[in-house]
Amino acid sequence: MKLAVYGKGGIGKSTISCNLSIALARRGQKVLQIGCDPKHDSTFTLTSFLIPTIIDTLQTKDYHYEDVWPEDVIYKGYNGVSCVEAGGPPAGAGCGGYVVGETVKLLKELNAFYEYDIILFDVLGDVVCGGFAAPLNYADYCLIVTDNGFDALFAANRIVASVREKSRSHSLRLAGLVGNRTTQRDLIDKYVEHCPMPILEVLPLIEDVRVSRVKGQTIFELAEFNTEFNDVCDFYLNIADQLLSTPEGVVPKELMDRELFSLLSDFYLNSKETESTDSHSTEFLML
Q: What is the DSSP letter of 256?
């Protein structure tokens, strides 16, 4: 299975990707995580350091693929998860999609691309061009990470459009949404009501998850020394179990931008009016 993880920039994709990779490995899968961000920090919590990128390695070899060995680009992370960082072009130059393509090309040259049960692409930021959507060309499923806010759902809707477009050429499906770092899910539910898709899990706002990335460790690693983290690990194991059940997935139809704006803003304002009315009613009853 090849899985592409997308979502708004800063939404927590890399944290979810790393912990999900471990969850899949705990379920007996041989996992390769490919970071597709020029920051090359996707696999940081798995390896505890910034591993060399594919592009950096190819540059040192003058782009002679035959001189590159698997150990030059594939690093073992926590729980046996294999890690690759695609890297990227210099800021303001080149195309991230080209880098992803070169990464897959090299892994195929090394006979590594098809050796894994799971290949997880952790993709940078919002989809704004065909280059950023390149990992969808190699994926069986897309997983979208969002929170309960408008900006993240707007980005999710754009990703939905990319999934629909890419599904025309191959059997790509949307596995579903993962809500992250949110104490509420009313906007998520409203969006899914109008753009039907599965919600695989909604993770609450947990400070320890954010701190784990600063420490360079995954939640699963922290759980070895503190059993209080086991409940958090269960969120990721639940997502892994749903993915391993080979879900049918969906080819969703995105909402038009104005339709999405209207839907979420009207719902938010109506919710606030209801809260205000309930508050006044409560005050009246107390009098």
A: P
